[in-house]
Structures are given as C-alpha cells and as structure tokens.
Design brief:
Elements: E1 4-8, H1 14-24, E2 32-36, E3 58-65, H2 73-90, E4 95-98, E5 102-105, E6 108-120, E7 123-132, H3 138-142, H4 151-155, H5 161-182, H6 188-195, E8 201-206, E9 209-218, E10 224-228, E11 231-235, E12 239-240
Helix pairs in contact: 2-5
The structure holds biotin (BTN).
Residues 13-15, 39, 42-45, 48, 50, 59-61, 101-102, 112-114, 129-131 line the site of biotin.
Length: 241
C-alpha cells in the first residue's frame, strides 16, 4: 500500500477528520493517513474519550478503501493490533494484543484502536484510528482511569513521534495485506499465539451485561467465542478482563 501522510498540529480527532474527507470525496485514496500532534476531541471505543497530551503520543488514522462487510471490521482492527505488537516487540517491549482492539504490556494499555466503516456514493472503506502511548510519563499514566503505560515508561527512552509512525507503517502494510488476502484466517495463528491461550478464564462486559467463561477460540471473523455453562457464546464487542 502506498501511504500519503498528512500531519496536523492540532485537530479534533484524526478519525473524524478522515471521515469528513471521505464524505467530501468518496474516491479518497486508500492509504491516506491523517496524523495529529494534538487531538482536542480524541475518541475511544464506546463513546469514551482518548487522552493524549500534545506532542507526546502518536495519534493517527489510516483510510483503507475496501468493500468488505461490516463483520470483517473487527479482524482488520486485530491485524492493526498485531502490527503494533510486532513494532513494540522489536523495541523489546513485551506487548501483546488484547481482544478486540488493544495492545497491552502486562495489564497496562499502551495502544488503543478505533476502526469505523464508512460508506458514501456506493464506495466503502474502513478508518483505522490508532493511539499509541509513546512518551506518556508515569504521572500522565496515573491520571488515566485505567492502567496505562507507554514506550517511555517501558524502556526509559523517549521516541520521536513522526519516526515512530514511519517505522510502524510498513508493519501495518504487511499485516493489513495479510488480512486483505485471507481475512481473519490469515491472522488466526499469530493472534492466538500472541494474545494468550485457549481455555483462559475471561469476563466480558458489554454495556451493562457481564459474562464469564473461558476462551474457546475465535470465529471466522475474529469474533470471540466464550465457553460458558450455557454453551459457546459469540461475542462481537465488549471489554474483556
Ligand atoms: C480505544 O482504546 O478505545 C480506542 C482509542 C483510539 C484512539 C485513536 S487516537 C487516533 C484516532 N483518533 C481518534 O479520535 N481516536 C483514534
């Protein structure tokens, strides 16, 4: 994939910016990347806010023109999580992907991904928004309501934000091509190996509903299969602990 990267000093949300570009021009080039040194209205999953101090973390969104079904969106997010995991592992950070859209170091979040399907004028695509904690300090991490970490905290080294994006893009390219060619089947082995063993105990919170069981595996689109006393339940979204 050819990437076209556009950096902004300050904008609301890179996902929203790409979404607006797509609604103005449904022929938007696949591989368009919007990155921001500061987001004033960064969005997370389930309507949550994404916090990142200015010039500190990597916040960007990538547009992929693809006519894939809505059901295939979660597995694209998983491909992106595998790319980020590989990037961090290369820097000796023991990160692992967590279903459906996070990358963790231990139980601390280092990266969150928000994928959104867009459709306009008969054209469709997916916006993959990635927030990677690069130079977040321990004080900033402590101010977040969930356990968080960063590349700085894990290694003691500060990293350039734009070089981090440049280094990550080729990995995203490779994992996304793998997804384009084979869907979740092409990711299944790596995902299962990196994200933890079948049979591990899980609790899934989706809205107000809490389900407990063990990991039975993943469906053909990467949906989580939870083994419960009532049988196997298919989970498409939620927070897993
Ligand atoms: C989550 O973990 O809830 C997903 C967080 C996704 C954050 C990124 S930062 C770049 C892009 N722009 C946004 O507004 N959100 C995503």
């Amino acid at each position: 994939m050819q990437f076209h990267v556009e950096w902004h000093d300050r904008l609301g949300s890179t996902n929203t910016c790409l979404r607006d570009l797509f609604s103005e021009d449904s022929d938007l080039t696949s591989g368009t990347v919007i990155a921001a040194r500061e987001q004033t209205a960064g969005r997370g999953r389930s309507g949550r806010k994404w916090q990142a101090a200015p010039n500190t973390n990597l916040c960007f969104s990538l547009y992929i023109g693809t006519a894939c079904e809505l059901a295939a969106v979660p597995s694209l997010t998983m491909a992106a999580a595998l790319a980020v995991t590989e990037y961090l592992n290369k820097d000796k950070i023991t990160a692992a992907p967590k279903w459906p859209n996070d990358v963790l170091v231990g139980d601390k979040k280092i990266c969150g991904i928000l994928s959104e399907r867009v459709e306009n004028n008969g054209r469709a695509g997916i916006i993959v928004g990635i927030g990677l904690n690069v130079n977040m300090t321990t004080e900033e991490a402590a101010a977040i309501d969930r356990p968080a970490t960063s590349m700085l905290i894990e290694t003691g080294n500060a990293f350039g934000i734009s070089p981090t994006l440049e280094a990550l893009l080729p990995l995203l390219d490779r994992w996304i091509s793998q997804w384009e060619n084979g869907g979740f089947s092409a990711l299944r082995e790596s995902w299962t190996q990196k994200s933890g063993p079948i049979g591990k105990p899980l609790t899934v919170h989706d809205g107000g509903i809490k389900k407990t069981g063990t990991l039975a595996g993943y469906g053909e689109n990467g949906e989580l299969l939870l083994k419960t006393p009532n049988g196997i339940e298919t989970i498409w979204s939620g927070d897993v602990s």
